[in-house]
Structure formats: C-alpha cells, structure tokens
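Q: Trace token order:
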Amino acid sequence: MDEVTITCNASDFPKNSILRKCFLCLVDRKVLNLDVDVLNTILSNELYMNLEVLEPNLAEILPLMLAYYIKYWPGWQRSREYYSGKLHFKNWYDKFKQYIAIKINYAIRNGYPAELQSNTEAAREKLSKHVTRGSQTDYLGTKGMSPCSIVINCASSVVNTLVFTDSEENISVTIPLIPDNILIKKHPPLKWPEITMRDIVNWPFVTVKFISPEFCFERKNCGTYQRFLSFANMQFLPFKQEYIEEVSIIDEKTPRFCYTAKLLGRYVTEYINVLEMLGKATHQEINIIAILFDEFLKDIEELNMNNTMASNTSVVFNIGRNHYSRTKKITKGTSMTGMKSEVHYCETFIPKMETSLYYFNAVQDMNAADVSFVYLNEFKNKTRTNVLELYPQVIYQCDFCEQQWRTPMEMLLHLTQTHSMEPNFICPKCTKPLKVANLVQSRWKHEC
C-alpha cells in the first residue's frame, strides 16, 4: 500500500456514501483508519441496522465485525482483474456491499456473542471426536485470509499428501457460527518407481563421494526451493537463475591443478580395465563405478569451462539449465455468497549439482607407447598385487538425514522407507507435468 493514511470521521462524508468512499480508498491502496462512529454510521444508514434494539454486547462488537469484514473481504483478491480492466467497478462494489450486508445480518440473526459463549464447550467436544491425537491448533495472531490458523504436526511425508478443499458437500463437522468450512483430506502418497543406480546419483538431496588412491570426487544434489503463497495461481512466474552459481576452493592451503576431461576420461577407462583384469570386483560393482565416473565427466562437459576441471575445486551449477514448478491450492468456499477464496502454495525447484574434484594424483607413464599411468601399470605388470589398495571407497549420503551408507541398495532402501516419492513438477515453458524419476534420468533436462 501507499504510505498514505486516511482517517475518516462520520462528518467527512454524506451519510449514504461512507462505505463507497471507504471502498474507493482501499481500491487506491491507501491505509484507511475508521473510528467507531463511522462504523456505526455505516451500519445504521447504509446497511439499515437498528442498533438500539440489539442486545448490548452485540451492538458493541458489531462495528468491530464490520471493520473485519471490510478488511478481509475475499473479493480483494480480484484487484488484479480490476486494474487490468477485466472487472467493472460498479459490479465489484455491489458484490462488496452485498457481502458485508450478508455477513452482518448473519451475525445479528445468530446473536453472535451469546451464541458463541453458549456453544463454545459443545463445539470443542464435538470437534475433539474428529481431531487426530497429537495435532494442535494454536492462535498465531491476526491473519489476512482467515480468523484462524491451522498447525499440522505430522511427518513430512504426510504434508505432501494433504489436500485442502471445500466441505460444503461433505461436512462431517459443523462448527457453530462458522458458515464456511475447510475440509482437509489425505490422498495416497505416490508409489516409488524402479530406481536405477544412475537415478540415485542424480536424485534430489543425495550426495555420492568416490575415493581412491589417485582420484577423489564428489557429486552433491543440492537443488533449492523457492516457496511462496499467492492469491492467484502464479506458478509460472518469470524466473532467472545463474547457470554457474558458485566456484570455490575446497582447501586454501592445497595447490590446484587443471586437467582436461579427455585425460580424466582416459584414466577412468584404464582404471576400470585394471579392475576387470584383476577379477576381484563383481560386474555390478564395476558397473556402479563406471556410472559414477560417467556422471562426473558429464558434469565437466555440461559446465563447459574449456572442458576442464581443476583439482581442489567445487562448482555449483544449475544442472539441466531449467527450473520446475508445482502448486497446492487451498480453497475456502463461502456458501452464503457463492464466492470462493483461494490461496496457492507455490514451489519453484531449481535443480543444482555441486561437483567437486578433491584430487587427481595420477602420473602418466612416459615410457609407454600409449597414454597410461604408472600406478595402474604396476597392477597390470603384477608388481603390485594388493587389489584392496586399488579398490575405491564409495559413500552415499542422504542430505536430509545426514546419514551415510556404503552401497546404493542401502541408500535406495532408506529413500523408499523413510522419504515419500517427490510429487510431479510442471515445466514453466510448456506446462507439461513431469515425473521426478524421468527428470532424473535425463539429468534434469526437458525438451518442450
């Protein structure tokens, strides 16, 4: 709102135009202060309420209720339509006045204060039969959309499966004095699909570290969410993301050396050939190592920094060069006016990869005819025989739980038993729904 405060007194306006003037002030995005006399004048002269015949407590609280209904009229959400010329002022104001009149009449009809006091205990007792033990509702201060707040205490896997919807057709609990109800339903969580080793290493919030005597690198899936609430469905907001977000030195005291992807790739080929020749590693273990190397080399290629990578260096980049969205809509139906108010919980997910090359200590064998490496040649020539010395250590980590495992199967078991399957995303360009498992398989790339 503009930094303009308008204080209204009953004498400032003709008695039949105060509500309209207040509406105009709020439409112009100005701060409006209303005293009790102004509110009573609106009630008497524009809403035709005979305040003198009302029960004293109700007459005292009615002006406050009027101010509340003015401030939290659901129709304010349509201001974007008005400013863009899609909504006519007279129609907008007529709905506003109708809403205020209906709400005030409802309160008078039900004798709000007396009814509230007499029904409080009954309402609590009735609600307690339908509320899960362990959940709680706390008052968290004044809200812009509703006079109440809902706090849900449950596992994170449950939150993703909650649906907030209208309960006008299926009202299991009727709360006295509250004509509008919100129904919270839980739909079944998504089932986990078949996850491959390549999927795991690109799965959100999974880190894999490869450690061998001459080669050590790490790939950390560190995607970030931008979350916000919106009155309108704004899941496709314009978004700009730097492709390479950060380049950092891992250890300031350790020197850095630059290597081409071609040289690293040649070492990888030799390393896997030696493991196969020695015959101590299973086919599955060698396949896992090959996938880790392949994804790391693809990172270097995607970074496009002259197809090179420096040791003792970490790079965070937007893997796939895209971002994705999803929303959860909370709808509150207003049965008396036929209007609905919506709040959209929006998420924008930016897939990111932090690729780190801790060290590469391999020394080329200059006596060999082709590109090869001294350490690996010693195993080929059988001057070194301790296979365990060559065999790598691979560490899998869940960045949510900060737990580590030594095999991909343990990592997969943890994901499927502890965490829920990620809901689908939407491409902001083509609005096509996309499964996380499919995005992972394509290294978070999507061709519209």
User: Anything to note?
Assistant: Residues 1-7, 113-147, 166-180, 334-338 have pLDDT under 50 and may be disordered. The two ends are 39 Å apart (CA to CA).
